[in-house]
What we know:
This protein is of the alpha+beta class and 192 residues long. The protein folds into two domains: 31-135, Alpha-Beta Complex (Hemagglutinin Ectodomain, Chain B); 137-192, Nucleotide Exchange Factor Grpe, Chain A, domain 2 (Roll), CATH 2.30.22. It has two helices and six strands. The strands form two sheets. It has a three-stranded antiparallel sheet with strand order 1-4-5. Helix 1 (2-110) runs antiparallel to helix 2. The model has no long low-confidence stretch (mean pLDDT 83).
Amino acid sequence: MAEEIKETVIEDAAPESEASSDKKQKDSSSKKTDKDSKKLKKELEEANKALSEKEAAYTELNDKYMRILAEYDNFRRRTQKEREGIYSDAYSDAITNILPIYDNVERAVQYSEGDKVSEGVALIMKGFADTLDKMGITEIPALGEKFDPEIHNAVMHVEDEAYGENEVIEVLQKGYRRGDKIIRFAMVKVAN
């Protein structure tokens, strides 16, 4: 009987040692899981923090982009209005300069005497020349000049030995320029 009791005690002791080793393993795996869990939580917090920083940077860049886009749109509208205003002002200035000539033509029509009409037309021509001068428009020299395709438009060529080669012998329509810009080419007859 004593032997039976020893065997029972030993058998009972064996399961306790297995249970304690299982418990130790559970405790160590529990500690390992806690460490892993803390490590994962820390990594998640860092990832969330990095994400928040990236979102803040994105929001800032997006705001800058939207402001620049709005400024460009405003700039485009403002320049379009200015361009339309400049055209309108230039058009008004040109008409304002031409209206006195119209007034003089209207006055000349009222006269029926030959001398008065020719005197009126001379005044109109003088007024028109003054107006062109005020606007910075000059006549392109043509008669007797060498033909230049940059400023002359040759509509006729004549064989005449009395004139030099490519010499403008007649101006059919005067040409005008403002600075370097040609407003109308001089229409000319050229000798060959």
